[in-house]
Design a protein that fits this description.
Number of strands of chain A: 37
Largest sheet of chain A: 7 strands, antiparallel
Distance between the termini of chain A: 27 Å
Protein name (chains A, B): Dopamine beta-hydroxylase
Low-confidence stretches of chain A: 1-48, 602-610
Oligomer: homodimer
GO biological process, one term (chains A, B): norepinephrine biosynthetic process
Pfam families (chains A, B): Cu2_monoox_C (PF03712), Cu2_monooxygen (PF01082), DOMON (PF03351)
Shape of chain A: globular
EC number (chains A, B): 1.14.17.1
Radius of gyration of chain A: 27 Å
Function (chains A, B): Catalyzes the hydroxylation of dopamine to noradrenaline (also known as norepinephrine), and is thus vital for regulation of these neurotransmitters.
Largest interface: A-B, 19 and 19 residues
Number of helices of chain A: 6
Mean pLDDT of chain A: 85
């Protein structure tokens, strides 16, 4: 597959009438396509407002996407810049980044004329014109090194072949056409150079608090790392705060990505080490290195996290993250995830995170609380499941004990699973009724974990229940996937960022082990003791020996829906709040939230334009 | 509650302008109501074609409904005749005949003026105007003894407050307003005289075959029965065919209902007795009488069945039901279900069924095959379930053995459950894929079991699978409901009428008993042997001792989805086809049919008229 698309033979062979001359072609209809001139489009729309969001779509930086959001009109304006365009480009969205069943816009040439259309790919990757054209082309411009497209798209189109743009992760897909196609239907995505990029398109636009006059910055950056030519590298770098660094509030942070490496730096996190150790070795190397000191496992308290596409993270005006001072470790660990699928060699990088902090402490300390499942093998997912759900609870009993009467206010959230996680949601329930979604990602990817500002702050009061559910896909597995710390084990966690900080660090659950043992006993009795799920075996061993027929799968689901739970209602990872936390009843939920489905029948505004657009532009 | 509404004081107080005079009122708008004159409506629509379908809605015959169907326009025209109208009437449809959450048309007066509107009742029975008026009033006429309304309604309106009219049972509801109401919103259905009537509105309009010249008729009628003044009576009457009655084909039958008793005769069936007994006692009395000879239990082979609202039943031109002649019993049993909720006394009845038959045998014998579940307690429904599904299978192994290569052709179907049945559906699967619905009733009522002509004949070939699922509501029960013959036990059956007749009379399944015992063993082990579900106990006793928590419910569902089945692939109720029928695998279904949802977004044609209509009519 050709990587660099610098030649332009197809493009050069296009007739290049001026924009004015193009008007004479208005009445020429090509096949089923209605002709709309770019000239007309260009004159009818004023240039768009600047685009606050940018991302490179491909590792070579051929495609650059910028966008802005109108929450009032529920419309996104996209600007797509293409370098060294050959014969066309496709761009779109799909459920999980596949090129099949994707919602696409297509720019292509038949060698003579060029077209723009709203399209979709079927389950075999073949491309079809959308019956309803919802992507409106506003501008096509030659640039010095390629082309720039400007188009807009409503969040909701009511076209069943279109992607529904929601608050969560969006898998953008792209492809490059290297030769002309006689028609749209002649294109199959399987023959193209394609890829995907994940992003949250509908970012929160909470107004940015102004920085105080005494704001200072500190960069936690990798020290001139030679990026390994492996697809995946987690780089670990330990550094320390100055001696006698007093307590400050982090009030904002942002990524500092070395120029040219934008497509390689996937995500970064800064962790604070545990205060219980006086010092930590200043390690600098791959996180999976055998040389990495074990003590670094105690550097897990998240101070800042950034992922591809994320902008600067601002704390609310009334809160900041305390760091420095008494009772807090001076040691910080930076983790950089390099994603280098093309195995580029010799690239050097000094990316990291820039912390903005102030000595003038804000009203509240911000805190991070862990919701979801305890890291224990008793919560497991059978193999070959397409959408198995595990749920962790933060019960009313725990919030009653640990939260102040005035409540806490969650303003941001970071969802976390390991490799089989596909969806994550946390819902708040009060008086047995689900009331609101704290954070939901129906297109969650373990490869894209950002801290997201909530569009609306969620207040949690004593007695409230927080229910975190994760959906897993284990189609690729032969054995059960148990809960745990390992990358091949699973987690279900929502790190919520809130204020005022409380002692509650962890509010999670797992099924009661005694009930799980009853399940294994049942599996055994149903299978005539052919399978050893003996209690002497470890829980992972027991899960490994379960024969995964539909009955044993359904029973496990039924067990997780029914059995009492063990709660972790903890101050720090070891210290529990006082009380009985074993054999707790599952929270009773009498009414659940319904999925918000867009209200399409009653004349949802959709922009319908002509079936396809013939485009022309002057040559650079 | 007043039963007979012969006075008309409110109605008499209405001004009674002639239709012509009414034109002067055109511009008067009352409150939010737009005025549309009946006069104008009358002139704009030609008189409708005759109404082939009729039904009395209430036991007193105050409300008579007639209708016709346009399958091309997907519209029903209704004619509602009201006797002795006081202050108004409501008519409509709801899920199961309740007056809450009903889709209604309302005719009411405020004492001065009268109105017609498309409306709906909320969950408390309060009535509201529909935002979208889909019932179009075409004519209002005074009659000698009341009023006649003509209106039309599309099958599908896309109004979420409207009922979706489908092929299956429709629960019609009605109510009589005895006094004026100042507004629609002031009406609550709970204060009215109301009721329900079940009917299949969208009847099959398969063209009626012409009767041959030699057609003869025979009436099987109750001999001048004094209808008991109980709400429910099943009357049994045994009669016999003439000596030496040779084989004939029944090619049609229809109900003969004694005039005046239309509202009391609920359903009737004619059964042929078993050929194995030479004679049967000529019993005539209530079917539950202690005097009824036990031998009548052998009169179960259905020859004809009629239920309220059903028209004549015609066999396809190429087939008829063989009766008479060698190897067939001369004895017939008529069963009449009298429904007398108002305990009317002294009414005499000679209703029955008129058989049309011919000595010129048709090409094929028609047969009846029983699909669904075996009558056995191993198939059970836990108590307090709102929609528990049991499924019976007719497997490929059985159809392979029993059906001719050219297949059989199902042209009619009668669904059957006992009192907790709420839905029944039979689906045909081929090569592991569900292909078509044989018959479905999502509003099935055990009180309304008709033989229905299929709109499309379904051909079944060797290797096909027929899957019959019944949905039960056991909210009123404290103990499990097991399968069986008793009225408090349950059944799940589809009697399909087909030709050419085969030896296969019964193709049904039930869960393997050994696997059910494993389930009981599991229930026991999970509950620490607190509950005795010992195998010495009978299956109903075992089900009675299950503690019905969510785990045991889910496990039972999982068992029915997983466990092997025992097949009844029978020639007559005792004789099985040769082969191994125990421990059969459940049919594997890889793709299921989707529920057809009406395609509303893309401009489904709905008739929108004014919010409400002020009506006037001349006084009789």
């Amino acid at each position: 597959m050709q990587a660099h698309l610098t030649h332009q033979h197809c493009w050069n062979s296009l007739p290049s009438p001026s924009v004015r001359e193009a008007a004479s072609m208005y009445s020429t209809a090509v096949a089923i396509f209605l002709v709309i001139l770019v000239a007309a489009l260009q004159s009818s729309e004023p240039p768009e407002s600047p685009f606050p969001y940018h991302i490179l779509l491909d590792p070579d930086g051929i495609l650059e996407l910028s966008w802005n959001i109108s929450y009032v009109q529920e419309v996104i304006h996209f600007q797509l810049k293409v370098q060294g365009l050959r014969a066309g480009v496709l761009f779109g969205m799909s459920d999980r980044g596949e090129l099949e069943n994707a919602d696409l816009i297509m720019l292509w040439t038949d060698g003579n004329r060029s077209y723009f259309a709203d399209a979709w790919s079927d389950q075999k990757g073949q491309i079809h014109l959308d019956a309803q054209q919802d992507c409106q082309l506003l501008q096509v411009q030659r640039t010095s090194d390629g082309l720039s497209l400007l188009f807009k798209r409503p969040f909701v189109t009511c076209d069943p072949n279109d992607y529904l743009i929601e608050d969560d992760t969006v898998h953008l897909v792209y492809g490059i056409l290297e030769e002309p196609f006689q028609s749209l239907e002649a294109i199959n995505t399987s023959g193209l150079y394609t890829g995907l990029q994940r992003v949250q398109l509908l970012k929160s636009e909470v107004p940015t608090p102004t920085m105080p006059a005494d704001v200072q910055t500190m960069e936690i950056r990798a020290p001139d790392v030679l990026i390994p030519d492996n697809e995946t590298t987690y780089w670990c770098y330990v550094t320390e705060l100055p001696q006698d660094f007093s307590q400050h509030h982090i009030i904002m942070y942002e990524a500092v990505v070395t120029e040219g490496n934008e497509a390689l730096v996937h995500h970064m996190e800064v962790f604070q080490c545990a205060a219980e150790f006086k010092s930590f070795p200043l390690f600098n190397g791959p996180c999976d290195s055998k040389m990495k000191p074990d003590r670094l496992n105690y550097c897990r308290h998240v101070l800042a996290a950034w992922a591809l596409g994320a902008k600067a993270f601002y704390y609310p005006e009334e809160a900041g993250v305390a760091f420095g001072g008494q009772g807090s470790s001076r040691y910080l660990r930076l983790e950089v995830h390099y994603h280098n699928p093309r195995n580029i060699q010799g690239r050097r990088d000094s990316s990291g995170i820039r912390l903005y902090y102030t000595a003038t402490l804000r009203q509240f300390n911000a805190g991070i609380m862990e919701l979801g499942l305890v890291y224990t093998p008793v919560m497991a997912i059978p193999p070959q499941e397409t959408a198995f759900v595990l749920t962790g609870y933060c019960t009313d009993k725990c919030t009653m004990l640990a939260l102040p009467t005035s409540g806490i206010h969650i303003f941001a959230s970071q969802l976390h699973t390991h490799l089989t996680g596909r969806k994550v949601v946390t819902v708040l329930a009060r008086d047995g009724q689900e009331r609101m979604v704290v954070n939901r990602d129906n297109h969650y990817s373990p490869h894209f974990q950002e801290i997201r500002m909530l569009k609306k702050v969620v207040s949690v009061f004593p007695g409230d229940v927080l229910i975190t559910s994760c959906t897993y896909n284990t189609e690729g597995k032969k054995l059960a996937t148990v809960g745990g710390f390992g990358i091949l084990e699973e987690m279900c966690v929502n790190y919520v960022h809130y204020y005022p900080q409380t002692e509650l660090e962890l509010c999670k659950s797992a099924v009661n082990d005694g009930y799980l043992q009853k399940y294994f006993h049942q599996v055994n009795s149903f299978n005539n003791e052919e399978v050893c799920t003996c209690p002497q075996a470890s829980v992972p061993e027991q899960f490994t020996s379960v024969p995964w027929n539909s009955y044993n799968r359904d029973m496990l689901k039924a067990l997780y829906r029914f059995a009492p739970i063990s709660m972790h209602c903890n101050k720090t990872s070891a210290v529990r709040f006082q009380g009985e936390w074993n054999l707790q009843p599952l929270p009773e939920i009498t009414s659940t939230l319904k999925d918000r489905t867009p209200n399409c029948p009653n004349g949802q505004a959709v922009s319908r334009t002509s079936p396809a657009t013939v485009i022309n532009w002057g040559q650079g």
